[in-house]
Every structure is written in C-alpha cells, then in structure tokens.
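Lab meeting, action items carried over

1. Structure of the two-component assembly. Owner: GW. Status: complete.
Input record:
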Amino acid sequence: MVKKFIIAIDLGGTNLKCALLNSSLKIKAKSSFSTKSFDNKRKLIGGIVDSINSFILRQNLTKRSILGIGIGLPGLVDTFKGMVHFLPNIPGWKEVSLKKILEQETGLPVFIDNDVKLMTFAEHKAGSAKEYNNVLCITLGTGVGGGLIIGNSLYRGKDNAAGEIGHLPLNEHGPVCGCGSEACLEVYVGNARIIKDARKLFGSKITLEEVSKLAQGNNAKATKFWGEVGKKLGLALSGVVNLLNLDAIVIGGGVSCAGKVLFKSVKQTILMRAMNVQAKRVNIFKAKLGNDAGIIGAGYLVKERLKR
Amino acid sequence: MVKKFIIAIDLGGTNLKCALLNSSLKIKAKSSFSTKSFDNKRKLIGGIVDSINSFILRQNLTKRSILGIGIGLPGLVDTFKGMVHFLPNIPGWKEVSLKKILEQETGLPVFIDNDVKLMTFAEHKAGSAKEYNNVLCITLGTGVGGGLIIGNSLYRGKDNAAGEIGHLPLNEHGPVCGCGSEACLEVYVGNARIIKDARKLFGSKITLEEVSKLAQGNNAKATKFWGEVGKKLGLALSGVVNLLNLDAIVIGGGVSCAGKVLFKSVKQTILMRAMNVQAKRVNIFKAKLGNDAGIIGAGYLVKERLKR
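Predicted assembly:
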C-alpha cells in the first residue's frame, strides 16, 4: 500500500510555515521561511510552489502519494471557490484565484481557508474543544482573531467572515481601530496596546514574554497587568457568552501564555458580567495545539474536502 | 376529512394570548386575558387549561381535531424536556414540568419554548427573514430580547439560552442592569431608560408612541431622540455583525414602530462601526408578524415537533 500524505501550509504576515502530514495528520517534517524575501504576490506564490516541490523531493515522495495541499491565509478567503479576496497584512493580494493557480502549478488538489478558521477547526477536531458543540476560539496577538464552532461545525457566516471577536466594541467611544471603527476589543488587548502599557509599567525594553514570566513568579505589578487584560477580554467574552450560550472558549496566541492569572481574570469577569446560566455553562481553555494549529487545521481541511 | 387545528398560546408578563390556528397556521380565532387575575402558578396553569378547553367548546371542535398545543413563555425553558426553568417576570415559576402537567390535564400533545425563540422562528418561517440563513431577531420593549437563526435553523445554545443581545455590554462601566451586570444594551435602549429620557425632553406625560408619531412628522427633537437610540442599538449590532457575518437582522417590539429614523440610524451606525464585508452584507428589517409572531411561532413549533 502506498502511504498517503498531506502538505499543509500556514501563510502568516511574517512566516510561511510548511509541513508534511501523514494521513492521521501527524507532522512528519516541517520548514519555515520568512515571507519578507518574497516582496510581491508572484514571488510569494512562486515560493509556495517551490516549498511544495522541495518537500516532495527531499522526502523522496511522488506526487501520487500526496492526497492534497491545504493552505491557511490571514485574510478574507472564499474557501469553496478557492479565491483569496484580500490579505490585510500582505500587500498586493486582492482577488487571487490561488486554488486554481496552485493546482495548475502542482497538479495536486489544493484547498484554502482563513487561518483562524483552520486553527478553530483544529482545536475542535483534535485540541482543547474536542468534546464541545458550540465554541469560540480566540487568538491573541498583533490582531485579535476568532473562529466559531456552532452545532459541531465550523461556522463561516455568509462571506466566511464570521468570528471577528477582535472587533466587538468594548465601549461606545475609545481609541481608533485599524478596522476603521473605535474602541474595538483589539485596541485594548492587541499586542500593540499591551506592549505600550507594559513598557510604561516595567521600562522600555521589556517584552510581553518577560511580563508573562514575571506574573508566573507572582510579581504583583505583572499580576495586576495581566488581570487588567483579562478583565477587558472577559467583558467582551461575556457578551458573546450571553449571545451564544457557548459550552467552551479556547484562547490561543502569544498572550495566552501569560498563564493562570490571565485565565483566572477572564473567568471571574465572565462570572461577574455574563448571565448566570450562560456563565456557569462555559468552559475556558488554553489552546492545545499552539503554533501547529494552523497546519493541523489545513490538514483537516484537505481530508474533509476530499471526503465530499 | 376532519380539519386539523393547533392551539397556540403566548404567555407574557401582562397578557395570556390564545389563538386557534388552522393547519396552514392562519389565525381562526383569538382571545386574551390579563395574567394579573391569576396570582399564583396553580391558578395560571388552571387559566391556561380553561382557555384551551373553552376554545375547543366555543369553536365546536373535538379534541381529535386538535393536532397539539404550542406555548411560548418569557424565560428559560427546556423545550425538549418540556420544563420551565424560571420566568423572571412571573413569580413562582421555577422548575415546572409544564408539558407533562398540561398533557395530563388536556390529553393533547403540548410543546413549549421560550417566547423570543418562537418569534424568531416565526419571522424566519413566514416573516421578514424568510429567505435568509443567518439572522438575529431582536425585540425592543421593557426587556431587550433576541433569537438567532444559524444555518437556516433556530440556534438555541447549550441551555436554550442563546440570543441575549440585550445583555451585550455597550461600555466597560455604566448603569446597573437587572441581569446583575452593568452597561448592558438593555439599560440604554430598554423602555425604562428611553421613556425617562423622553420625559426629560418632552415633558412628564409623553408616551413612546407619541414620540414615535412626532418623529414620523419630522419633529427635530424626536428625530434626534430616536437617532440616539438607533446609534446605541446599531453599535451593539455592529459587534454581532462582525462576529456572526449575518445576512439579516429583524427588529420588532414596540420601539421598532419609531419608524424610518430609528432604522436609518441603526443602518448608518453599522456601516460606520462594523467591518466592511459584514456591514455591507447585512439587511435590516422591521419584524413583519408584529404581535402575532409568538402565536405563529408556537404553531410552527407544534408542526415541527409532530413531524419528528
């Protein structure tokens, strides 16, 4: 029997991660490139094709042993048409028929989707949200993204644009947000804001990882700092919990490593601010699959689409 | 062929509405009682049974011609077990096996559900949201309630408690809310608050209906008043639209009669505050079925459950 593999790709604003998965979606090999060297769309697509081909070569595979290629992208994607509408952080990507282009270049079936949707898919299939039906996955980083599982399936909304928890307003008025609105959750708990707050408190050279370590060592200022981040996050989540009566929330991304103090503050805020029944129902978990979630989600995407 | 009918009941904090529907869910007869005369749970259940029996008698029907009884209730209901968990505005209702009690008393199949869920169900089946897949229905009154259609089905959440748009926080801090939190949408656009604001502006005797009429006649103060209500409502809806990428929002309840100025303000706010793709996608409608939505939804509930 010929062994079957999936090539999974996670395209971020900074890195292009590439992995070879076996048919059980275990990672067999990995590679990563900076996307900066590919300074336009054509070069970046070329880079994706090269990394697919070099994987096949280096692992001594044939194209016949590859089930398909799954790709996560940081932006608005029509997963069924295989079209990238736009990528806010990668210039030049507007209305790109990526599936068609890559299928022509590689001769393999290609499936694409939004990266946070794939992370959500992975956490629901194989991570922290495995046994839950109605789930919000949230990623805390430069941006604050989210994905939803509703009735045991990935919920996309009409344009595959659902899940934007980062753009829930936390106040009627407040700091301007990149999305064009103001006072969105992202402007309060996105990395740009919290690193600024941290540097005011701890000096201009501290990193968020260091503030996390301080909190894990019970440093009072760091504990208070993450407690405040947790309150803002918990308040936005209270609204979502009231609206969706979720059974689980999964928190991932760099900031989720702040640890217990952040999660405790989120939980306490939900208990204080959300309605009784909904607050008691929801479980709050740290994401389990970490940096591999996008890759594993891309693998599930390929498996799911090929089943149809 | 024996004609088949459904008895539909909408139990509110003020009135018990009862209707006879034919099998196409057209209303053939209606009655309404004040719930105040039934000052305890036992009497109210007796009142429900009496109104069912008197309907059957007055309309010259036999029990064999009744397909079933559908009931909407203003609170937390386990629709599948037929259990009322609690009704916040009707004292004494805690963990009542209403389905079982009424089936024993009437000998007919009984189905119960939350009233806003039934209104949502009705607007999706036969009202403004008929052709839409992902919908929020919102009712503006003393309370601000909501229901969700997700992927063409009524979305209940884990405890049938989903849809509580009235308890989305609009600010981190603000006026105390009946739910135990603060700064919820309901404290800004619920009737209690807006009648107070209206009386400050227009004098102590004005009603909200009168402020609506003034706005319809282009009175500048009234136009501004409903514009402000629309801004607050629109902001909360912007968050939901970003999160759920809905294709329609249906607004019902007394305040929805304020007319164009309210809807215009809601739409403008969503276009300003929600993300581009989601804001352009969503349609905003006035509820079509008005006061009958709960009754018609109760009819659909009976039909749907009997099909299983």
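2. GW to write a short summary for the group page. Key points so far: Chain A touches chain B through 50 residues (CB under 8 Å). Chain A is about 40% helix and 25% strand.
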